[in-house]
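User
Here is a favour to ask of a fellow structure person. I am asking you to supply a protein in sequence and structure-token form. Please set it down just below, with no commentary around it:

Assistant
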Amino acid sequence: MPWYAFLFVPFALIFRLITSVRNYLFDRNILKSFQSPIATLIVGNLSVGGTGKTPMVEFLIRNLKDELALASLSRGYGRKSKGFIQANDQSNPTEIGDEPLQIFRKFKGEIPVFVGEDRVAALEKIAGFSPITQLVILDDAFQHRRLRGDLYCLLTPYELNFSKDQLMPLGRLRESRSGAKRADVVVVTKCPEGLTDNRKIEIKKSFQTYLTGCTPVFFSQVGYGTPYPLEHQIPFSNSVILVSGLANDQGFVEYCSDKYRVLENVSFPDHHAYKEADVKRLLALAEKHKVQSPVLLTTEKDADKLKSLANHGFLGEIPIFVLPIEAKFDQEDKEMLLSYIRGKFNKQ
């Protein structure tokens, strides 16, 4: 923590007061929470961005879609539109947000994908639009207290889990650590490979103060797939220019630096909307390294935005490749987590 951190203490205390009063009012039913007409599984976190919510949502969809009629609902962060929208073949990041579009493209025809800032109203509409839906998986709704979810899955990153973090602006928490008591299950994300049992026990002990009863805790890693081309036939080159708009690009950059020859890393803020100046920067970098015949390597959530620029001719002939990312569990944790979730919703 920097030496000047003490300057943020008053603001953190004010933020704590506001969020604590809000949670107290919901906990005492002074502010009302509403039950969804469809069962809900909420994936969220206590901190801002970078915990791996979208890979976790995709993991759940991939493993539950054949046994439950699923739908996905998120706020659609970064979109320019308002209200309730169902994703379709004409949807774009501006209309529904980059992460919902990524989920739609990946599971097109298998589950419906919706966005809506008012989750309670959106769930009522989903019940009318898609009455066969048995379970809605919500992305980033842990603080949406107006909705009373059926199961809360709290994600926290290994490097800075919630037990070690501080409230904003001192840290990255958007409510106090005690908010973890609402979790039914906790997943520690972005763990290093080969995490020992002793280290897992240490982490679980650090959570005990904040969790209710015997809340199960699981551990996941980031799994990377094989880069695939974004609508072109040019072969992949190990000389890459990284392009991403992530809350935390450290894992992405470290993995690519280990696997490929990274010529440049162009990092933008989370959910970045690419502009003409960004295109000029990428073109200049490609020209700078043209002797190595570089390719652009990006994330799935950035792919459609860059694809739009390429389709409009702004990125010239620079080949774009996408690196798939997914949540990966040890077999035992995977089976136990899915068994816990299935047990919850088989009873409904």
